[in-house]
TrEMBL record:
One of its GO terms (molecular function) is ATP hydrolysis activity. Residues 366-427 form the ArsA HSP20-like domain. Residues 48-318 form the ArsA/GET3 Anion-transporting ATPase-like domain. Belongs to the arsA ATPase family. Transmembrane segments: none annotated. Pfam families: ArsA_ATPase, ArsA_HSP20. Residues 1-25 are annotated as: Disordered. This is Ion transporting ATPase.
Length: 438
């Protein structure tokens, strides 16, 4: 596999001893799900399971999401099916119009498609209300609701907000989310963690000066200090993002990939699996959609090639994934009868949690080893940069800035190796920070 991945130090802040660390999160490599600002506000606990369904565009992920939710509901589970498409593709599959108001599809099955446009307008209007004094000071004219059009990413934020709201409502036992196609879904799933990090960097809560000192510090610095309202807004945003991140980080949350077996589907699955692994998200099942029957090409007709191609891909997938095949119905599924005929899998209680364990090899080799599962990663497409208390990991087209476990923050990076889909990063204790006699 070649030499070990390069590990570079960015020259950022030196590692420092940890003072007070909060409870570790559920998802591997994730930051704390508590608010970073002010008192330690806890994110409400939910017992709901969540299945996030994505796949390459055109793979039938919306159909599989609807069939999965229907199967769970008919098995007796109170299920909420959440969609995000601006066009009502979810309603077309279900045979029931969906929209901003949740609609009952069957007993124990509710479908909901939030209005991203209205959510964007409401959010911006509220922001203008909170910033009214600053806008007046600048002589700015407020935007009317009629002139507001959603910006790129508004739909993704609306979907995250809906996931958070559904989790906190606790009105259902299972949430099935029809995510966007895989590349956009991966960016969406990264949003809460990344936006919270930006907030902490731009408005570090520990640097929030006392209200009485702020004018004095402003005169000394020669620039206005951030107002109390700005920190309050940051705290509110952080808590909202933390609630969404907590759902993604929960051990009851899984990602289910959908793809049509074949070369294009295989490439998409490999890329998505790597991106999800880097985020520490569990993939419970790979749903092979539109699988042709064995007897689809009697006498070696033109379908013989596609059938053989599907069989070859399925065999390869079964070596690395828990695969469930859904038969091609011969037409696009429409309505609950067609969805039931697909016999989609329901909740998989045996999904293996993702772990990023740290192995203590101090006695033998003098190092601690952090094991990061990255299935499908390629040595030449890996890059590691140590930056203070964080490790910047790049794997192919994906990048994540991961907070180091507390013990590793008192170490220096000693090297890394990629073997059988697991990146092993070695850390040697820093004598300046490591407890004596360890």
């Amino acid at each position: 596999m070649g030499g070990p991945p390069d590990v570079r130090d960015s020259g950022g802040p030196a590692p420092r001893p940890s003072a007070c660390r909060r409870r570790p999160p559920c998802r591997a490599g994730a930051a704390s799900a508590e608010a970073a600002y002010g008192p330690c506000a806890k994110v409400p606990f939910s017992t709901m399971r969540t299945i996030l369904i994505t796949g390459p565009g055109g793979s039938g992920r919306t159909t599989v999401a609807a069939a999965t939710a229907l199967a769970a509901a008919r098995a007796g589970t109170r299920t909420l099916l959440l969609g995000a498409d601006r066009d009502d593709t979810l309603g077309a599959v279900l045979g029931v119009r969906t929209g901003p108001a949740p609609v009952g599809v069957e007993p124990r099955l509710t479908a909901w498609r939030p209005d991203a446009d209205q959510g964007f307008r409401d959010g911006l209007a509220a922001l203008q209300d909170r910033a009214a004094s600053a806008l007046d000071l600048l002589g700015a004219t407020r935007l009317d609701a009629e002139e507001l059009t959603p910006l790129p990413g508004a739909g993704e934020l609306a979907l995250l907000r809906a996931v958070r709201d559904a989790s906190l409502a606790e009105a259902h036992d299972l949430l099935v989310v029809d995510l966007p196609p895989a590349p956009r879904a991966l960016a969406l799933l990264a949003l809460p963690e990344e936006l919270r990090r930006y907030l902490r960097r731009l408005l570090p809560p520990e640097r929030q000066a006392a209200r009485a000192l702020r004018p004095v510090l402003g005169r000394l610095a020669g620039v206005p200090m951030p107002t109390e309202a700005l920190y309050e807004a940051a705290a509110r945003w952080d808590l909202e993002l933390a609630a969404a991140e907590a759902v993604l980080a929960d051990r009851r949350t899984v990602v289910r990939l959908v793809a049509e077996p074949g070369p294009a589907g295989d490439d998409a699955v490999r890329a998505a699996a790597l991106g999800l692994a880097l985020r520490g998200l569990r993939t419970d099942l790979l749903v092979a959609n539109r699988v042709l029957p064995e007897d689809a090409a009697p006498g070696g007709g033109w379908l013989a090639g596609p059938v053989a191609q599907q069989r070859k891909t399925l065999e390869e997938w079964r070596g690395t994934h828990d695969v469930r095949a859904l038969a091609h119905l011969g037409h696009d599924p429409r309505g609950t009868d067609d969805l039931a005929a697909l016999a989609a899998p329901g909740v998989n209680p045996d999904a293996t949690p993702v772990e990023w364990p740290v192995t203590d090899r101090l006695a033998g080799d003098g190092v601690l080893v952090w094991h990061i599962p990255l299935p499908g990663a390629v040595r030449d497409e890996l890059d590691l940069v140590r930056r203070g208390d964080e490790l910047v990991v790049t794997a192919g087209p994906f990048r994540r800035i991961v907070p180091l476990p507390s013990a590793l923050r008192r170490c220096t990076v000693d090297g890394a190796a990629l073997r059988e889909g697991v990146l092993a990063v070695r850390f040697a204790p820093d004598p300046r920070l490591w407890p004596q006699g360890r």
